[in-house]
């Protein structure tokens, strides 16, 4: 479910961002471009989430 919602939210947010940026620039809105960028963004977010450790470091020192 986490992966599905990551793809859904990335699709919604990146599509909205693509629409707004193309509107501001006066360019033609392309749905396929937004969909492709949203897939790339979702994969990058999931990779970053997998790389970041969950807990604190064992060697952490508090000063």
UniProtKB/TrEMBL annotation:
Pfam families: DUF2929 (PF11151). Keywords: Membrane, Transmembrane, Transmembrane helix. It comes from the Bacteria. The chain crosses the membrane at residues 32-52. This is DUF2929 family protein.
